Predict the structure.
Amino acid sequence: MTENTSLIDLILTRGRRKAQNTAKKAQAKAIEIAREENRKLFEWTSGMIQEPYMPSEKALKEMANATQIGGDHYRNKTIQPWDAMEAWMSREEFIGFLWGNVIKYISRWKDKGGLEDLEKALHYLSKLIEVIRKD
């Protein structure tokens, strides 16, 4: 019984490591995409480029899921909380949740979180655009 338990533990440990490595690689790629899209967005908003800019649906999803403003307490989760919420809520409820957070962070940025709150608002707005574009 001990040999079987050890073998099972070994298999589970290897499986977890493989899953963690796969997740790390995917996250690194998503962060790379997010950085490039953020650079393009910055160039557009600062007037460096004139043509209208809108990230692709894939880029928006990668940006929203790969970045977190104000820590990494969600990034290490196997399932992102807003992915679970999107699955559990109706489309209208989830859109309302995202829109409510955009409003919250925009309305308080001068009094509470400053630039970080504006970045959080943009983060929720990116996810909202991704959800709305699915139609």
Notes: The helical segments are 2-45, 57-66, 81-88, 91-108, 115-133. Residues 1-56 form one domain. The CA atoms of residues 60 and 130 lie 6 Å apart. The chain has a mean pLDDT of 75.
